Amino acid sequence: MSAPVWFDSIRGRIAEILGSAATALPQPCIYLIRDLYGQVRIAAPAHLEDQHEARARLKHLAQALEAALAAHACPAESAVMFLREERLTTLRAESRQIAPGVFWVDRLLTGQDWWSVGDALPRTTRRYTLYSVKGGVGRTTTAAVLAWHLAHRGEKVLVIDLDLESPGLSTAILHPSAQPEFGVADWFVEDLVGQGEGVLERMWASPAWPEDFEGDVTVVPAHGLAPGEYLAKLGRAYMGAGGLWNERLRRLLSGLEDICAPTVVLVESRSGLHDIAAATVMDIDAEVLLFGVDSESSWADYGMLFRHWQAEGLATKIRERLSMVSALTPSDRSVRYLEGFRQRSWDLFRHLYDSQMASEQFVPFSFDVHDTVAPHQPMPVYWNQGFEAGTSLRQISGAAVLLAYTHFLDQFDQIVQETMDSA
Asked: Which phi-psi region, left, alpha or beta, contains residue 268 (left: φ > 0; alpha: ψ -120 to 50)?
């Protein structure tokens, strides 16, 4: 009995087949599709079905795939599909080229949105996504502090809670009586029946912070004053997950920006590697603050994501959007802690840097480990008892902010200034 072929070896074995001189393929192009079960089949233009030589070559490829991939290949006699142009157009939108004339399509239930970077959105504002691979790292508190800080600087700040599974931003910032009628989940379910526009004007409110700001803050919660059937809404909020959901999210964002006219948008993302988190990182044309702690599990999870970006050729599109945040930094041993965090952050970001790719025609994008403006340079948020879990943020203490966030806000302001100078 032959040894099994495992999922992680599929792409490598296909590359060997496509690199073989013995594999002659018909033109103009074919598609290799890995289905939801992890089996690979072939799709080709319908007109090739009537060409004897093209059918023979496709049959030869199907047999080669079956021999190399074993259980992860469709049986050769049924592996080739001949599709009309309208079907091929759909495949083309989901595909990426892996060899001359050969395109790869991965059918996924989740995870699709980590594979591409969305087009820029028309905007007059700066957007920031607060993201982490794990929860409990202070994204909600940081969103509140950033909004408070930016409003003091004269910015009109829009804060959106897209952590629909663990909502809490609005209840931490807004008094219960100040909660708006609707929230993000309401918009997504009403948009399904064409009523999203009626929700937009009734899903935002402002915190009653005692300070006088030169700017202002507007908060869009995950749910409204009366959550109602929140779990039933949540079960429908992601209808159209994948490209369609991304487009709906972009419409929601554009609609809120048209109404609230912010100069800065802060989006609290869902944590983890789910498609919904991917949309806030990849598809809304935002700068991304990556929150992490110096733990093996945190670096391992980020490593999976960064290696994926590297393997799929997304490094140049995503890396300049990223900034690393050292969350929950222990103040009593911060120097040594941050040295270790910086080194491991640099090891992570090297997946996206070009230090090994320099040539006479190519200027590499890279940074020294101690470069103060590099994406891997940690922006420290210090652990502070004034910001313990569950603490209300309706009155942000200036002393607590200074203790926990002074260095973070200084580095954030520096990044903002450099971004504006280079624009």
From this structure: beta
